[in-house]
């Protein structure tokens, strides 16, 4: 565990790393700001949208945390390795391509004002992507090769049979019988309810038919046609007709 977050290193005092050169707070702060500005491709778009309402300092802290996670930086020592690598990357490029770095002489002249790696002599924003790639190739790949093969150990399957045998008996046999009986009773109850639903439908249909028949019969009995017939059907129905 680290005592302070890497995202806060830009605000800390310069310190002498054991076994390495001095790194000033100004140098660390400048390089971390470059990472925030030029490493947006290491941050998810969703996170970028969520950070928009925050102020600049809070956005920078969260961005750095996301960038460090993408680069595999987990401890403070790795942050200083990154800072020193960026400084060395700048010096090596300045030495091999002096014509492309017009500020090389001026940077060296002003180095005393900004520490051993003052901001005026640091890496250009356009070189950040190349420096990140080189850093990953130099530090992350060897770390992967030397990682202990704990994840590759063969899984012990000697107790698998015991585990699955116990899992098969997790529910007692008596409870299974109760569930079977309950399932059978529920199926019978479902059949009874289905039969009742069908009878209710048929009853409603018969009631509707009876209503229609009553309406037709009422219209027939009250029709004027009955008075014009020699043998009115209504009299036959009521038993009032007698032949002369």
Automatic annotation (TrEMBL):
InterPro entries in the cross-refs: DRC1/DRC2 (IPR039750), DRC1_C (IPR029440)
Superkingdom of source: Eukaryota
GO cellular component, one term: axonemal dynein complex
Gene Ontology terms: biological process: axonemal dynein complex assembly
Positions of the UniProt region annotated as Disordered: 1-23, 94-121
Domain Dynein regulatory complex protein 1 C-terminal: 163-221
Pfam families according to UniProt: NYD-SP28_assoc
Official protein name in the record: Dynein regulatory complex protein 1 C-terminal domain-containing protein
